[in-house]
Write a structure and sequence with these properties.
homodimer; alpha/beta; 4-stranded parallel beta sheet; 16 helices; binds guanosine-5'-diphosphate
C-alpha cells in the first residue's frame, strides 16, 4: 500500500497529508491501474524535484535569474538555473494539458517550470513539488505583460526570427523569449519544434510560453528528444497519464467536491460509466441528433443495455447489476433524456441504470471560482469511471481519459446536425490529441504529413489533422 | 414470510403474482412495519371480498340492480345488493384518499364499491378484490352524467332534501342518489354525516359519490358507526395505512417505475429521507423562503446534518453514513439547491448526503398518462423512505405517509412569502387530514367545533379547520 499510495513511485514521499488530501488518497478511488511509471521516469522526477528545490522561487539562483531578466539582456553564464514560465491561458482542460506539455519540455531541457497562477490555479491544485512552490512569485517582473502576449508580440520567438532580432551567431540575446504556441501560431512560431531552434532557445535563461495545445506529439518527432523520451516512456501512450497524475492533485476544496459526489452517487454501484457530452455546435442544445448519437454509441458498443420498450414489465433476471452513469455536460437535456429512458423502461438484461449529472452550468464561465472547481471535479470524477465515453475535440475529455488511464469511446463530431454513423470509435490510445500540430520537415525545410513520419505519432481519431502518440496500433 | 407477503393477513392470498407484481413484492421494499391489521378488519375484508364476488359487475345481482336503476325508481326489496359508485374526480392524491374513504363507507354500510375508471385508474392500479373487477362496467347507465354532477345537480342528496323530493316517510324513492361531498358542498349535502340521513340513504340501492375529501374523520363522529370503527381499527391512526395498502397496488408499469428508481438511486443508501415539496403559492417558484424552510426544518429537526461552511475540508469521521434524500416536487429548484449545498460543502457529521428527484413536471398535467404514473410512483417511493417530510395541505404527501406508516414532519404553509417559524411540526398521526369537514351537531341541529367532540378526532397540524383521526395524543 505504501508504494501504491505513491502510484508506483511516481509521487515523492513525505508531503504533509492534511494540506493536500488528494495526493495520497486518490488511490482509494481508483482501481489498481496497470500502467507503472518507468524507473527512469521516476528518477528523472526525483532529479527534477531537486532542481526545483535549488532553483525554485525565492532561492538565490532564482533571484539572480530575475536580476538578469530585469537587466534586459541575457549574458550567458551569469545564472545557474534556466526557467520556462507557463502562462495562464484558455479553458481548464486545455490548461491542464498545456501545463503537462510544458512540464515535459522542462524535463527534457532541464529547465525549472514556473506557473502563472492566473485566477484559479492556486485554488484548484496542490503544489506538486516538495518544499518549493511551482507558482511564479506575484512580483515577477514581466508578469503584467502576460495578458498582452499574442501572435503579434515583438518578443515572440517567431517575430524575433522574422525581424532578424536573434540569430545563433549573436553573442547577446534578449533577456527572455515569448513562445507563442497557441492555435493561431504561424510558421515562424512553429520552428520551436525544430532541433536547430531548440539549440538557440537553450541559450535563454527565461522562456515564457502561452499555449492551448498539448504539443507533446511533436516533441516525439524531434531527434534531439527521441532517446530521452523512449527511456522515460517505454509505454508511449502513458505520457499524460503519468505526468498528469504527478502534477495535478486537486486542492482540498476540489477534493471534497470529488469525493462527496463519488460517495453519494457512484461508489456503491456495481459499475460506473462516464459519458462526457461536449457539443461545439452553435446554440445551447440539447439536440435530438446528439441524444440519438449517445444511445447509438452506448448501446451499439454494449456499454449500456438496450431498453425493452415492448413489454413494459419488471424483468426478474438472475443477477442484475446496478450501473451508475456519470454524465457531464454544460446542459441538462442529455442527462434528463437518458435518465428518463432508463427510468421509464426496463432493460433487456434486467440491469438497473442510474444516471447522474453533477452540474449543468449552461455556459462556459471560467471566471467563477466554483465553476472551475466543479469542472475540475467532473474531469476527475470521469477519470474514476470504469468505462468512458468522450466527445470529439474536447480537452476536458482528454484530461479525464488520461488521468483515468482509460481508452475512451469517442463520440464523433457531427456534420450538419445529424447523427454520425458510426456514432463513435474506440480510441487508439489514452493520449490527448495535439489539435494544431506543425506540418513541417525541419531538415528538408518543406511541408510534410507529420502523422506519417513515425508509427507512434499518428492522426487523431477525432481530428483528422491532429496528432497523437500511440503505443502499438495496427489499422 | 408467507404471512408477511400478505401484510399480516390484510391481503387475500391466491392472486396471480405476475399480473400484479406489486401486490406481493411490496414487502421487499419496506421495513417490517409495526402496525398489524386487527383480526376483525381482516375478517371484514374477507367478507367484503365475498360480497364483491357475489354482487360485483356482471353478476346476476348486479344485472338486477342495473335494471332497477334503468327503471327509474327504487322499489325496496327487489335487489339483494347495494352499491356505492366512486366517481373519478380531482388530483391523484385526492382520488386515492377519497376512494379509501368511500371503501370504508362501503364496509360500514355493506355496500359494494364500484369504481369509475376515468382516464387512468385501470393503468395505475391492479384490481384489489379477487375474481371480480372493482371497475364499473363501461355501459353503466348513468356513467355519462358523472362529469356533469356538481353542487347544483338536482339528483344530489342536498338538493333532493332542499326541494323536498325525498323524505323518510316516502314509499317510493328515486333510483339513485348523487352524494356531492366535494369541497364546495353545502349544509344540506353535509347532512350525509348525520345518522338519521344515513338511515334514509340505506334505502337506496345506488349511491354515486363525487368527493375530493378524505371524509373518514367525520365518520368517527357518527354514533351509528362508532362500535364498528372501534373494532376495525383498535389503533385509530392506521385507517388509511391499512385500507390504502389493501386497495392500492401499483400496476406493473407503475411498479417498474417505482422499483427501478428505488434500486438505481435509493436502495444502497444507509438511510432514506423523503422530502415532498408542494407549494400552493401563485407562480412556479422556486422561492428562497421555501428553500430556507426546507433547510430550517431538516437541520433543525436533525433529519439532515448541517453543512460546514467554514472549513471547506474533507472531514474524516469514524463511520460516516451515506443518506439518500428523495425529493419530489413539480419544480426543479428545491432539489438543485439542496443537492448543491451538500455537494459543495462537507457536513459537520461527515455523513454524505445524496439528493435525488425523479421528475419535475413543472405543472400538474393529470391528462398525460405517464405523468400520473410518475406521480403515483413518487408517492409510493416517498412511502418507502425511513424519514418523511411533507408539505402542508397536500394529499400527495398524505398518501405517502399513510402507505409508509410514517408520521411526517409537516412543512407549514407560508404566509406572505416568508419562512414560517417554526418551519415544520411532527405530525400527531399518520392519518390524512379531512380538509372541509362539517361543523354541525346532528342531534342539537346547530353549529359545533367538530374538532373538540372526541379526543381521537382533532384539528389538523396543517389546516386549522381540518379534522384528522389520532390514536393517542396529549398536547
Ligand atoms: N462543469 C462542467 N464544465 C464544463 C463541462 N464542459 C465544459 N465545461 C466548461 O467549459 C470549459 C471548457 O474548456 P476546456 O476545459 O478547455 O475543454 P474543451 O473546450 O472541451 O477543450 C471547462 O473548463 C468548463 O469550464 C462539463 O461537462 N462540466
Ligand atoms: N410527479 C409529481 N407530480 C406531482 C408532484 N406534486 C404534484 N404533482 C402533480 O399534481 C397533482 C396534485 O394533485 P394531488 O395528487 O391530488 O395532490 P395535492 O394537490 O397536493 O393534494 C398530482 O397528482 C400530480 O399529478 C410531485 O412532486 N411529483
Amino acid at each position: 500500500i505504501a508504494e501504491d499510495k505513491l502510484l508506483g513511485g511516481l509521487l515523492a514521499d513525505g508531503f504533509d497529508g492534511q494540506s493536500c488530501l488528494s495526493r495520497y488518497q486518490s488511490i482509494l478511488y481508483r482501481k489498481a491501474l496497470p500502467y507503472k511509471p518507468s524507473p527512469y521516469l521516476v528518477s528523472k522526477l526525483r532529479k527534477y524535484e531537486d532542481l526545483h528545490k535549488r532553483c525554485g522561487p525565492n532561492t538565490p539562483s532564482y533571484n539572480k535569474a530575475v536580476e538578469q531578466l530585469k537587466s534586459g539582456s541575457n549574458v550567458v553564464g551569469t545564472t545557474d538555473c534556466k526557467y520556462v514560465v507557463w502562462v495562464w491561458y484558455s479553458g481548464l482542460g486545455n490548461r491542464i494539458l498545456t501545463l503537462a506539455s510544458v512540464f515535459l519540455y522542462a524535463l527534457l531541457t532541464e529547465r525549472v517550470l514556473l506557473v502563472d497562477r492566473g485566477n484559479d490555479m492556486a485554488s484548484l491544485f496542490c503544489e506538486p513539488f516538495p518544499e518549493r512552490s511551482w507558482f511564479l512569485p506575484m512580483n515577477f517582473p514581466i508578469a503584467k505583460m502576460f495578458n498582452s502576449f499574442d501572435q503579434k508580440s515583438a518578443e515572440s520567438y517567431g517575430n524575433l526570427l522574422k525581424n532578424n532580432m536573434i540569430k545563433a551567431s549573436m553573442g547577446s540575446l534578449p533577456s527572455y523569449v515569448y513562445l507563442h504556441l497557441a492555435h493561431d501560431y504561424d510558421d515562424h512560431d512553429k520552428l520551436f519544434f525544430c532541433d536547430d531552434d531548440q539549440a538557440l532557445l537553450k541559450r535563454f535563461t527565461w522562456l515564457v510560453v502561452k499555449t492551448d495545445n498539448y504539443f507533446v506529439p511533436s516533441l516525439f518527432l524531434m531527434p534531439s528528444f527521441e532517446d530521452e523520451l523512449k527511456k522515460l516512456f517505454p509505454n508511449k501512450e502513458t505520457i499524460f497519464h503519468h505526468l498528469g497524475r504527478y502534477l495535478f492533485h486537486p486542492s482540498n476544496h476540489v477534493w471534497g467536491i470529488v469525493t462527496r459526489y463519488y460517495k453519494a452517487y457512484l461508489a456503491r454501484a456495481d459499475e460506473r460509466i462516464g459519458i462526457q457530452v461536449r457539443i461545439f455546435d452553435k446554440g445551447p442544445g440539447p439536440y435530438q441528433y446528439v441524444k440519438d448519437q449517445i444511445s447509438a454509441c452506448t448501446i451499439g458498443e454494449k456499454l449500456l443495455p438496450e431498453v425493452d420498450t415492448r413489454r413494459l414489465a419488471v424483468n426478474p433476471s438472475k443477477n442484475p447489476k446496478v450501473k451508475a452513469v456519470l454524465m457531464t455536460s454544460l446542459v441538462y437535456g442529455y442527462y434528463e433524456n437518458m435518465k428518463n429512458i432508463y427510468w421509464e423502461h426496463p432493460t433487456v438484461t434486467g440491469d438497473i441504470i442510474g444516471v447522474h449529472q453533477p452540474s449543468h452550468e449552461e455556459q462556459q464561465r471560467s471566471e467563477k471560482p466554483l465553476h472551475n472547481m466543479k469542472a475540475l471535479a467532473e474531469m476527475y470524477l470521469l477519470s474514476l469511471t470504469d468505462v468512458l465515453v468522450t466527445s470529439a475535440w474536447s480537452t476536458f475529455g482528454y484530461v479525464a481519459q488520461g488521468l483515468g488511464g482509460l481508452k475512451p469511446w469517442i463520440l464523433y463530431k457531427s456534420e450538419n446536425q445529424t447523427t454520425p454513423n458510426p456514432p463513435c470509435q474506440r480510441a487508439m490510445s489514452m493520449e490527448p490529441c495535439f489539435h494544431a500540430p506543425p506540418f513541417y520537415d525541419c531538415k528538408a525545410k518543406e511541408g510534410i504529413d507529420t502523422g506519417k513520419v513515425v508509427p507512434h505519432v499518428r492522426h487523431c481519431e477525432d481530428i483528422s489533422w491532429g496528432l497523437k502518440v500511440v503505443d502499438r496500433y495496427t489499422e
